Amino acid sequence: HQNETATQATSRRPLEPCPDIPPNLQGVLRVEFRTNRTLEDVRQHVGPLLQQGGRYKPANCVAKQKVAIIIPFRNRYEHLNHWLHYLHPILIRQQLDYGVYVINQEGDGVFNRAKLMNIGHNEALKEYDYECFVFSDIDLVPLNDRNLYRCSDKPRHLSVAVDKFNFLLPYNTIFGGVTALSREQFLKVNGFSNTFWGWGGEDDDLYRRIFFRGMSISRPDSIIGRYKMIKHGRDVHNDPNPHNVQKLEETYYNIDRDGLSSLSYAVMEIRKDLCHTFITVDVQAPA
Ligand code: UD2
Ligand code: MN
């Protein structure tokens, strides 16, 4: 009985906030994509720590931020398994209160990465009062767990040094890959544009929105911001769209009328796996 009383006393004490710097980070990580990983492997490997839908929060302290990870997706299941395999343990060590949302574009219309991000933002907020949104490609795995998947006082570009780009920024204003925006920052720019169909430009458009709304971006240094991209070719129905280049001239005029304020889509299915929430959507791709 003494033990029981002791346990009750501990559980009644309010939890302390988690420390600023998570104590169990490892720094540089080993990452390889040669191993074949099934979703079942991932469930067994990280599942026991998670709640249905790919949710987690630290048991012994109150997380600094509630973070929704939003992943645009279509037919990259092998990449998804690698991503889940590597990211869950990292996010857990980072002591985040987080959920993983895979936003799956239905059908074989032209892909729209940016619109999927907007949809993820809205759908995640229907579930929990997330304060921070990390938008991540499915094929990017950090090589250093000190790269925190959190938001800061500025919109943040996390994938600074990607192996595919020889660990260098291809250009200074690049804002593709993995980014983190607080709910406030994302609202201030009216989210992503919904009108970038096909490959390219949507990330530069977001950068311009941020700039035009008077903000600037932050980045970790190139040691901490290292990433490995899973090797891949160009997907079908996601060809580079030459119109997208022209559209970058129009960002300023489109911010308020094209984005979260004009978002229209249909949710076809929401599937809760142990390791992620998989939301299939009709993005109303042009015929
Ligand atoms: C670059 C950017 C990316 C985005 C893209 C242009 C970096 C590191 N990455 O990536 O953020 O701006 O250019 O649109 O700067 N996807 C699917 N299925 C598809 C097509 C795309 O799941 O059929 C998703 C998936 O999450 C993928 C992402 O969209 O990682 C971006 O597509 P990509 O990987 O083909 O583009 P990439 O590597 O050129
Ligand atoms: Mn890629």
TrEMBL record:
User: Where does it live in the cell?
Assistant: Golgi apparatus membrane
> InterPro entries annotated for this entry?
Galactosyl_T, Galactosyl_T_C, Galactosyl_T_N, Nucleotide-diphossugar_trans
Cofactor(s) for this UniProt protein = Mn(2+)
Query: Domain of life, per the record?
Result: Eukaryota
Q: What is its EC number?
A: 2.4.1.-
- Database matches in Gene3D superfamilies: Spore Coat Polysaccharide Biosynthesis Protein SpsA, Chain A
Catalytic activity annotated for this protein?
N-acetyl-D-glucosamine + UDP-alpha-D-galactose = beta-D-galactosyl-(1->4)-N-acetyl-D-glucosamine + UDP + H(+)
Query: Which UniProt keywords are listed?
Result: Disulfide bond, Glycoprotein, Glycosyltransferase, Golgi apparatus, Manganese, Membrane, Metal-binding, Signal-anchor, Transferase, Transmembrane, Transmembrane helix
Query: What's an example GO BP annotation here?
Result: protein N-linked glycosylation
Membrane topology annotation = Single-pass type II membrane protein
Q: What is its main location?
A: Golgi
One Gene Ontology cellular component term attached to this UniProt record is: Golgi cisterna membrane
What SUPFAM superfamilies does the entry give?
Nucleotide-diphospho-sugar transferases
Residue ranges of every copy of the Galactosyltransferase N-terminal domain listed in the record: 18-152
Q: Which residues form the Galactosyltransferase C-terminal domain?
A: 156-232
PANTHER family the record matches: BETA-1,4-GALACTOSYLTRANSFERASE (PTHR19300), BETA-1,4-GALACTOSYLTRANSFERASE 1 (PTHR19300:SF5)
Query: Main role?
Result: Responsible for the synthesis of complex-type N-linked oligosaccharides in many glycoproteins as well as the carbohydrate moieties of glycolipids.
Query: Into which family does the record put it?
Result: Belongs to the glycosyltransferase 7 family.
Protein name (Swiss-Prot/TrEMBL): Beta-1,4-galactosyltransferase
Native species: Crenichthys baileyi
Lineage at the top is:
Eukaryota, Metazoa, Chordata, Craniata, Vertebrata
